[in-house]
Write a structure and sequence with these properties.
There is one protein chain. The chain has twelve helices and twelve strands. The protein is an alpha/beta fold and 473 residues long. The strands form three sheets. It has a six-stranded mixed β-sheet, sandwiched between helices. Helix 1 packs parallel to helix 4 and helix 5 runs antiparallel to helix 6. About 13% of the residues have low confidence.
């Protein structure tokens, strides 16, 4: 399949510095490549805030337009030259034809565009315009395999497209309600399409409710076993680790969002069985509609007893990815554990005599977060550049060795009490591909799952007893 050439556009703001913008565009290029799109040029503009009508300035849009025009004109000349060379006789086969390039008909913006911005940008550029949200949605549409995932993605896609239909039917006028002069104007094409989409969204919402009940019933029928969920940024190796732990064949690929459907496998370490689930990966600027549509998929995170947070330590900005996942998990858990609590008595300093009153309006958010093990994966791909001895500047991420990162993160995560009250280290460094330190990870998971199992099911036996220590006893 031939990749479609495209132009990427991003902005630098006081809240988003240049290095972060460059890294976001790298991720956007990876998303584009996953969707069979080849980025051929990047445009970045430094602004105080995004333009409300065109996202970037009109001058920058004109610069993008000139580049696309130049590219396409060059492509036309190349194509003409190629045809001329093809018509030459065999005696002239010493002439080499230049490789033909496809025209640029797509521009991708790094942030979600409003319907107004989308309409104005397309009017100026005269090409198809996409934003980060629709690009992610299209990838999800391609990757969805089961009917459940397809329903979730279609729901999010329709919710995104609904306010943007005005740009799709600019060539249509109103439909008249009849031939007589007393008849009023009929339903516009936009109104008809919005009505159809709203009806489709309503049907999908009912389907998702039904599926949610089925998924909840399935989770209730899994018996008295501890639930462990793999979470993390997209493309960090969760599916590879899932295959290694459960000896299954979950699809794993070096692409973003290779896994959309939650996979649950029964895993037994030593004499202890538990359920291990592989969830969809998170990403920065994840579309809100997509998170809402994948509610049931993310219920595996909500109902998990233990989270295994997989981090790609070979990524230059793995710490930011770690924070993105942690923030997303907190938001998911906060929605389901929002409890209204109030101090039954509070002193009113404004009232005379400092009388006490019942504080009904005071609220407090309580998040019951599961225990978490942080797994730093891909240590086999980790690289760093030693800092020069005469360099007095503070070391950057590229100058820190793996051993230093291990000490830093082990100290950072060490001493945090688990639900069982232990204070063991909550971080482990592995390579799922090379099976490095996998035994250490299995031992940590075993101890944590065992502690949770004993606390939750004190009178429930394991599947079988251990006999390796009978002689010692």
């Amino acid at each position: 399949m031939t990749n479609t050439p495209a132009v990427l556009v991003g902005i630098i703001t006081p809240q988003q510095p240049e290095d972060r913008t460059r890294e976001y565009l790298d991720e956007l290029a990876f998303l584009a490549d996953t969707n069979h799109i080849e980025p051929v040029k990047r445009f970045v503009q430094r602004v105080e805030y995004p333009n409300s009508t065109t996202y970037v300035g009109e001058g920058k849009l004109q610069e993008i337009r000139d580049y696309i025009t130049s590219w396409n004109e060059s492509n036309t000349k190349t194509t003409r030259k190629r045809h001329e060379n093809d018509t030459k006789t065999s005696a002239d086969n010493s002439l080499t034809s230049t490789e033909e390039r496809a025209p640029i008909e797509l521009v991708i913006f790094d942030d979600e565009l409003s319907p107004r911005q989308l309409r104005n940008i397309e009017k100026i550029l005269q090409v198809r315009v996409m934003d980060r949200t629709i690009l992610i949605l299209e990838i999800f549409l391609q990757r969805a395999q089961t009917s459940y995932a397809k329903t979730q993605v279609e729901m999010a896609h329709l919710q995104y497209m609904l306010p943007r239909l005005t740009r799709m039917w600019s060539h249509l006028d109103r439909q008249r309600g009849g031939g007589g002069t007393n008849r009023g104007t009929g339903e516009t094409q936009i109104e008809a399409d919005k009505r159809i989409i709203n009806n489709r969204i309503a049907l999908l919402r009912e389907d998702l409710k039904r599926i949610d009940k089925q998924m909840a019933t399935q989770r209730q029928n899994r018996g008295k076993m501890v639930r462990v969920a793999l979470v993390g940024y997209t493309n960090v190796g969760k599916s590879t680790l899932m295959n290694l732990m459960s000896k299954s064949d979950v699809f794993a690929e070096n692409k973003l969002f290779a896994t959309l459907d939650t996979t649950v496998r029964k895993v037994t370490i030593d004499n202890l069985p538990f359920l291990l689930s592989d969830t969809v990966g998170f990403i920065r600027k994840l579309p809100h509609n997509l998170v809402e549509s994948f509610k049931s998929t993310l219920d595996e995170v909500r109902e998990a007893d233990l989270l295994i947070h997989v981090v790609d330590i070979s990524h230059p900005n793995f710490e930011e990815q770690y924070e993105v996942v942690e923030q997303t998990i907190n938001e998911l858990l906060e929605k389901d554990h929002r409890i209204e609590e109030s101090d039954p008595w509070s002193e009113n300093s404004n009232a005379s005599g400092r009388t006490k009153y019942r504080a009904k309006d005071q609220k407090q958010t309580i998040v019951n977060r599961p225990e978490e093990i942080v797994v730093f994966n891909k240590i086999d791909a980790f690289t760093y550049t030693p800092q020069a001895e005469d360099d007095l500047l503070p070391p950057t991420r590229e100058n820190i060795s793996l051993e230093e990162l291990q000490r830093t993160w082990m100290a950072k995560l060490n001493g945090q009490e688990s639900r069982a009250g232990s204070k063991e280290s909550r971080a482990v460094f592995i390579s799922a591909r090379n099976k490095t330190n996998i035994d250490e990870l299995r031992e940590i998971i075993y101890e944590r799952v065992k502690a949770i199992h004993i606390q939750r099911y004190p009178y429930n036996d394991f599947l079988f007893q251990r006999y390796d220590n009978l002689e010692e006893e």
